[in-house]
Every structure is written in C-alpha cells, then in structure tokens.
TrEMBL record:
It comes from the Bacteria. Residues 139-148 have a biased composition (Basic and acidic residues). It comes from Actinoplanes octamycinicus. The active site is at H169 (tele-phosphohistidine intermediate), E245 (proton donor/acceptor), E245 (proton donor/acceptor). NCBIfam families: PRK07238.1. Keywords: Isomerase. The keyword Isomerase applies. This is Putative phosphoglycerate mutase.
Length: 364
C-alpha cells in the first residue's frame, strides 16, 4: 500500500515477566478506519518492561515506513514512552537513550507523528502480540531484537551514514546585543564574517569531500554557507526554507530582559512548554516539526555523503535534542556560539551518533 499522504495508526506494547525477565514486544499498524495492515512481534530474551515497550514502538514505526506512510498516530499504554518521545519527560535511564534515539531517527522520516496515551484495554491487539512473543511464538515478520546491553562498545562503521556538519551562522549586530533574532534578515558583522571564515576552515579540516552545503534562506546563514562552500571546493549553496530560525513574533529584536518586562506571563509559559509560541510567533514544537522534515529529506537526498547544514540556534538545538533523545530542558541548557560546529551521523535505518557539539576551538 502506498500513497502521497498516507496516515496510519501505530499501536505498540511490550512486556517482561519479572522486570527484568523473559520479554517481548508487539506492534500493529492500522489504517484510520481500524483495519490491521501489518503486525510485528518478537521475543527479546531477558530485559525490562521499558526496553520491551520501546522495542515495540520501533517495530511499529519501521512497519509504518514499509507502508510508505507519511503521517503516524502512535498510541501506547506506556505513559513513560509517550511522554519521553513527545519531549515532555526527560530520559533519566541511560539504558533507554539508545532506543529513544533510534525511535527519534525513525520519527524524522515521517511528515507528522502524534503521541497519545491510551488505557491498556484499548491497546489489546499489541498487548496480545507481545504476550505471544513471550509465550515463545516465532511467527513474526521481523527477526527478534536483542536487548541493548552490550558488554563492550565500538564506534559504528561510517559506511552508508550521512554525516551532518551543523554550523550556526556567524555573529550579527543582534547577536552582539543579545537580542532575539528570528526572521529579521540581518547581515553578518565584520566579526561574523571572520567567524564564518574560521568555521569554513574547521569544516574543511573535518572533510574535503563535502557533498552539499545547505542553508537557511536568511542572509546571515547564506553568507556563512558561501564562505564554507568556497573553502571546500566551490560548491553551490542550496537554500532550504525549513532550516529558517524560529519566528519570535513580537519579541523580535528585543532582549530577554525587555521581553521579561513586557510579557512576563507569556515568557513564563514559553519557557515552560515547547507548545507555546511567542505572541504572533512560532512554537518550538512547530519548528521541530519542519526541521525533522528537513532532516529526513537530507538523509534521503544525500545517503552516505557529508552535508554541511548552516542554520540558527533553535533549529540546531532541536536537531541535537532529537538526536540525543533529550528532554525539552536541553533547549534551555545548551549554548550554541556563533559559528560553532556540531557533527553527527545518521544511518538509513535511523541510528544516530552525535560526535561533537558546539566546537569553538577554531574561533580562538
């Protein structure tokens, strides 16, 4: 089944008899009318309930991709998984972070994913499949997943991975003054030009075999990207509209103190939830949605290549938050310098490895 804009429902579950104990997962993909399109289930050996639940989610997302779905409504009776994947809860268990990162990589391949908690009685199909797996049945369309508890770890092979070199643009007058700078098309300062040239040298040091240089449409990013492209072989700069900065609405050009004084309640709500937008502006959830779409397009268009992405603070933070399977608090705790460089690898199966965050040695 395929279609230009196919919406499906993924119901997923997992369980462990003993926690940890013999575990298994189940996942069902349905159309919006409730007809079952695909089923997945497998045993996991000895592991925990939460690992099994995440494994069910991953299996369901993979099955949705097999159907060429573009929009997915995920429904699970695991409050933990739903809240963590929606970005409302932090992932404190280090053992779950690789699974959450894998799921986030799959989420990025869809145009839209929604997250809904449902009571167990409404998740009976996935629950039944998980129990079949724990009972030892093996009639799954997918090989069993091993629990992520290796005794040793080695860096993954780079073959087939798309390496993203994420670069924040150089400084502008707004940067120096600490003002919210969203859709306003301000140019680089002389200092910003120097920073962008330094970033270009760092990117060239990371790879001379760059396949593409992509940029937000705003001048500060395009100019930074042009300097980088010239350093790595004179590539053209490709503009991607979805890499543009958050629209800060009425806060554009204001300092934090000015916003705090003029919109104290709105600022408090904005800091509390990524679903809240500045007055006449754009929420971080909306930014995240379009940036995930951009990442999916990049990985699809440049498999196995090195791609430079020149963007802004908010999009880059959201890319790194998703890659690290972090909570929303990450967005307010991570600082990204002008012309700072971060690198990550994304594999076709959705696996992600973040290799550096906000490198700035080239700016000293």
């Amino acid at each position: 089944m395929s279609g230009g804009d196919l919406r499906v429902v993924v119901e997923a579950d997992g369980g462990s008899r003993g926690n940890p104990g013999p575990a298994g997962y189940g996942a069902v993909v349905k159309d919006t009318a409730g007809e079952v399109l695909l089923e997945r289930f497998a045993a996991l050996g000895t592991t925990t309930n939460n690992v099994a639940e995440y494994s069910g989610l991953i299996a369901g997302l993979r099955a949705a991709l097999e159907l060429n779905a573009t929009r997915v409504d995920v429904r699970m009776d695991s409050k933990l998984v739903i809240e963590q994947m929606a970005g409302r809860w932090q992932i404190k268990n280090a053992g779950l972070r690789p699974l959450a990162a894998e799921a986030a990589g799959l989420v990025a391949k869809f145009r839209e994913v929604t997250w809904s908690w449902i009571p167990r009685e409404r998740n009976k199909d996935a629950d039944a499949l998980a129990n079949r797996a724990m009972d030892g049945e093996t009639e799954s369309a997918r090989e069993p997943r091993e629990a992520p508890a290796p005794k040793s770890w080695a860096p993954p092979e780079l073959e087939n991975a798309t390496r993203l070199i994420l670069v924040r643009h150089g400084a502008t007058a707004m940067t120096a003054q600490g003002r919210y700078s969203g859709r306003g098309d301000v140019p680089l300062t002389d200092e910003g030009e120097a920073q962008a040239m330094a970033a270009a040298g760092r990117v060239a040091g990371l790879s001379r075999d760059v396949g593409a240089v992509l940029a937000s449409p705003l001048a500060r990013c395009v100019r930074t990207a042009e300097l980088i492209a010239a350093e790595v072989g004179g590539l053209p700069v490709t503009v991607m509209d979805d890499l543009i900065e958050c629209d800060f609405g009425l806060w554009e050009g204001k300092t934090f103190a000015e916003v705090q004084e003029g919109w104290p309640r709105e600022m408090a709500a904005w800091l509390e939830s990524t679903s809240v937008a500045p007055p006449r502006g754009e929420s971080f959830q909306a930014v995240a949605k379009r940036v995930r779409g951009a990442m999916a397009k990049i990985v699809q268009a440049y498999p196995g290549q090195v791609v430079v992405v020149v963007s802004h603070v908010s999009p880059i933070k959201l890319i790194l938050r998703d890659a690290l399977a972090a909570g929303d608090a990450f967005l307010h705790r991570l600082f990204l310098d002008a012309a700072g460089v971060s690198t990550m690898d994304i594999w076709p199966d959705g696996n992600i490895a973040v290799r550096s965050v906000n490198e700035t040695a080239h700016l000293r």
